[in-house]
Write a structure and sequence with these properties.
Structural class: mainly beta
Largest sheet: 9 strands, parallel
Order of helices and strands: EEEEEEEEE
Radius of gyration: 15 Å
Helix content: under 10%
Number of domains: 1
Strand content: over 45%
Length: 123
């Protein structure tokens, strides 16, 4: 549904095509429903409803996500309602989370609002 356009080379002529995925940012004015898949980092500043699969996910302080997340690392700073499966989970002081959380490592900042079920992944 959403395709990322290739990045242009800098004026020096060097290529940005290094084989690594980039960062995709969903702006604060966006409201998206559906499935989002990325091999890189996704930062959500707007509203998203659906399923997110990415290497890294950041929900910004003004971001709101409802649905499921599967990512290597998840950094929640905004609102989230749903389920998360991740290796590394960070719940920041501004987050408001109602979720089922499955993780290997967890960090929670003072001030984070959290309600839900926590499960540690078994090695």
């Amino acid at each position: 549904m959403f395709n990322k356009t290739p990045e242009r080379a800098p004026t020096g002529g060097a290529s940005l095509a290094t084989g690594t995925a980039g960062k995709s940012v969903l702006a604060p004015d966006l409201h998206i429903q559906g499935d989002l898949v990325s091999t890189g980092t996704v930062e959500i500043l707007g509203q998203f409803e659906g399923k997110i699969t990415s290497r890294n996910l950041i929900v910004g302080a003004e971001g709101r996500v409802t649905g499921s997340i599967a990512a290597e690392s998840v950094d929640l700073r905004g609102q989230f309602n749903g389920s998360v499966a991740t290796q590394s989970l960070a719940l920041r002081s501004a987050c408001d989370v109602q979720a089922e959380l499955l993780y290997s490592t967890l960090s929670i900042e003072s001030g984070a609002l959290i309600e839900g079920q926590f499960k540690v992944k078994k090695p």
